[in-house]
Design brief:
By secondary structure, this protein is α/β, with parallel strands linked by helices. Strands 6-5-4-3-2-1-7-8-9 form a nine-stranded mixed sheet. A two-stranded antiparallel ribbon has the order 10-11. α4 crosses α6.
Length: about 325
Amino acid sequence: MTGKINYYQRLFALYRSYRRRDIVVAVPPLRLWVEISSRCNLRCPFCPNKDLPENQKGDMVWPLFKKVIDQARDFAFEINLHHRGESLLHPEVGRYINYAAAQGIFSKLHSNGTLLNREMSEEILASGLQRLSISFDGFSAAVYEKNRAGASFEQVTENISGFLQRRRQLLKKTPRLAIEVIELSTSQSEGKKQRKFIRHFKKLGLDELVLKKAHNWAGHLGIAGPQEKFSVCTFPWNALVVFFNGDVSPCAQDFFGSCRLGNVTTDSLLEIWNDFPMQKLRQAFSSGQISEFQACSGCDRVGRPTLGGIPREYLKRMIFKHMP
């Protein structure tokens, strides 16, 4: 109960700071993204990963990861062990998950599911991970394999089924498993396949199906950002993202790291949280003058419907501590 009370106290304090548009935020962030690996084994048409230059592809080394987690355990309630790449490509992913979970931080991981074989499933089920989400964009082989270039519909379906069956055999409730689908097809035949798909996995114990709207990855996909509507982004007031090389960004939409706040090899996370680059970003949002920040000015997410400044699509999850 103490953890929940502390969570809501921090959430309220950060929200109050956000509404006041504080340039210096007195309380630390709630959430972190820590990029275990930026490498990926797929080339999905709507994902910028395939466009990453070679110098932005790599795995986080253990001393850096340990340093980040050792700092985060004093203030973070939630840690996402992924960002731009496929975390399961990291040769020591189990060790990394174990260490983060052992610090008492609610640990989550997102994957494309292609590497979730029996051995990997056993490792994850024993790791202490709290939530595993799988991108699965399409309810038929034709649609899925078009959207997930390089993946096999049949193989990934088998991987997910095997994971759920093994979790049931072990009588475990965690990690909770979610399948996340970007809504790209609205055909009647796809709708029938969707219902069949859901029935199959619900029988196996799937915890959640999340239907998501596509976004433009901070303008990278060429889809226009906000035109008339503008809402002040909440990220600079509640989260940080750590890239595999230690660079820190304010937002997981900043795929190419254009909004660099600092690097944890030289500065602590809490120093970066209120250092000049972050203050400058908060000031820009507060004044509505974000053109200087490429990742923010092109992002369609600052034009989303909000309630009290919070994006409506995330409001329930934020309140109940289950952010995606």
